[in-house]
Amino acid sequence: MTMVRGQAQEPLPPAAELRRQVARLLVIRGSGHLGDGQRRYPRWELENASLRRLLSEGVGGVILLGGSAAELRLRSRQLQSWSRQPLLICADVEEGVGQRFEGASWLVPPLAVGRLHSSDPERALSLARRYGHCTGRQARQLGLNGVLAPVCDVNNNPRNPVINVRAWGETAGTAAALAAAFLEGAQAEGVLCCAKHFPGHGDTSDDSHLELPRLPHGRERLEAIEFPPFRAAIASGCAAVMTAHLQLDALDPLRPATLSHPVLTGLLRQELGFTGLVITDALVMEAIASRWGAAEAAVLAFQAGSDLILMPADADAAIDGLVEAFSSGRLPLELLHRSLRRREEALAAADSRAPATSLTGPEELGELETAQDQALARELVEMSLDTRSPQALPAGPGVNLIRLDNSLACPFLPAMAPALLRPATAGYRTCLLDPRGPSPWSGNADAPLALERLPDGPVFLQLFVRGNPFRGSAGGDEPWPEVIRQLLGVHRLAGLTVLGSPYLWEALEPLLPSGIPAGYSPAQMPLAQAALLTRLGLAVGDAAEGGFTD
């Protein structure tokens, strides 16, 4: 035995074994695509040579993004073949597996179900549970055993730039009930779920991908709003909780929650009684990476009470830092062994719940999205639409003016998307407004849209706007009410759709005269576009639409 700070500590294992044990607690980022050249985000997604090396050296988890469902199945097998231990293979599939991997079910954002809860709580709970079963079953069949959901943040701040429609509710009661129903359904299918982002990221107007948000609330307010969904998730047996990169002075004025011992150990472990895995949010996010190096961030997170380190800025540096901390006694070895036990118990519990049948080859992928899954996706879309005025768009030629958060990364707008094709059949030429392109703004506060830069004719305005990581806003900072008034003033507004933020729709809909066709969908995918445009009289029964018919 050795003595560390006056206490006995068990002998360190051999250096190579200690490094492998530490590595098992990292979750690194990889592409769901098989080839290096297909990576969408090479800044964060390691190339195959590094992935293979790190997995062979003991790294215990991978988070994936991109590719098709069939490719994900192959990729999961490939990654597991590079490791000598069972891996945690996970993904951010908050809106169904199809949100990230084409060919699986892409479901409406959770807030759509949350908004149903006040008027029909039984139906909302049933939908949330079915949503969880669909997500968990498809994830497990494709090789994922971790689902980084549900979002347990209460989105009570309409200006939240990063949570928004990802939340299950705008009140603590709704978010708690529906998040618990989702995770019960998903975990029954043999995946471990992760309640996030503790202790609550819903009431922020800053994006932790870009900066460190600060919540000024006292403990009484946190108990009333932020904590209840996490209490409900813990009571429902969630396998994991993900930390939030935000500062809560009432809990710890010195460090953000991810690096805070009072928050993760004092509050989450001791007060809330959580005994499962604590996973950091991605340490590569600027709220952490801009203030701490990869090694120190990993050590501080582990010291605070985390078990798994997600997406460190440098995996090798994070491992080096943790090994040094355990070797020097800065971190007691008991913490390492405790986290390893939690990890293995969580994976074993998920495996024990997994159905006996699973997909074994590409020839069976046709069974992935069942008729029940397709019916659920349609029901969720239809129940979440809000439309007004059955009057059709005026005949073209006109302008189909589409606002995108980023046209370089919008899987909801493929070439055959209904939002492009259906207006085209009515004579509307598409123009895309993208932050990376030329500014559409005139600089005139009363008439902000530079109409002289658009073709002549009526304007069908389609706004694909929602909270998204790295954007820094949820779209409410742009002058859309003034644009509506400007287009009405020159008699050029033909119709309006808002796909994404309910708060933008609620701001614009009262400005519209009764004869203007308009509608809202919280979902943005082609299925939602088709359903919404059909409600507005733009129905197309044409195979050229690529199967995205309602």
Written overview of the protein:
The protein has 2 domains: 15-357, Alpha-Beta Barrel (TIM Barrel); 385-545, Glycosyl hydrolase family 3 (Rossmann fold). By secondary structure, it is α/β, with parallel strands linked by helices. Strands 11-9-7-6-5-4-3-12 form an 8-stranded parallel beta sheet, sandwiched between helices. The protein has a 6-stranded mixed beta sheet with strand order 13-18-17-16-14-15, sandwiched between helices. It has a two-stranded antiparallel ribbon with strand order 1-2. The protein is built from 18 helices and 18 strands. The termini are far apart. It is globular, with a radius of gyration of 24 Å.
Total of DSSP H or I helical runs spanning 4+ residues: 18
CATH architecture of the largest domain: Alpha-Beta Barrel
Rounded to the nearest angstrom, the distance between the terminal CA atoms is 68 Å
Beta-strand share of residues:
5-15%
- Please give the order of strands in the largest beta sheet: 11-9-7-6-5-4-3-12
E-strand count: 18
Round the mean pLDDT to the nearest integer and report it.
90
CATH C-level name of the largest domain: Alpha Beta
Helix-and-strand structural type: alpha/beta
What would the keywords be for this entry?
6-stranded mixed sheet; globular; TIM Barrel; 8-stranded parallel sheet; 18 strands; alpha/beta; 550 residues
Brief characterization of the structure:
This protein is of the alpha/beta class and 550 residues long. It has helices spanning 15-23, 48-56, 69-81, 110-117, 121-141, 172-187, 219-224, 228-235, 261-271, 286-289, 294-304, 315-328, 333-353, 371-384, 418-425, 480-489, 502-508, 526-535, and strands spanning 2-4, 7-9, 26-31, 61-65, 88-91, 146-147, 192-198, 214-215, 240-243, 247-248, 277-279, 309-310, 386-388, 398-404, 428-433, 459-465, 493-500, 518-521.
